[in-house]
Amino acid sequence: MSQNTTRLALPFIMASQAQKHITHNEALRLLDGIVQLSVLDKDTISPPGSPVDGSAYIVPANAAGAWSGWDGDVAVRADGAWLRLGAAEGWRAYVADEGAVYLRTATGWEPMLRAQQVQVARGPLGSHTGMGVLEHPSGADCPAYPLAFVRL
Q: CB–CB of 100/137 below 8 Å?
């Protein structure tokens, strides 16, 4: 039997293991970083000087310091140290400094859809329908997220 779960690499508690609470706490720490993933930034190339526990960052290419070699992964501050979360394809993260959601793909972190207020129709007196369009941030066609109308 493996010592870790397949998808999130959470440690299993083994039958003959001493100090089972340590393994359990490690799994909780990993889940705390992964579930509802929200990061402060995705462009910071070295760890901040005075990080707060719980702060998280998507590590960009060519990162320095404690994040060196962590390209594309997520760095989470936990218990006074940086914890590396190996980002897998399909992960989604809210990037706070951009107010945008990113999707981890085979090629890296890609922006997902954002609601843009685009007036779909305007009446003769200047009123509008109150409808908007979800657009891919790059303006390109995105087959995974087709054009959709939303009520604004």
A: yes
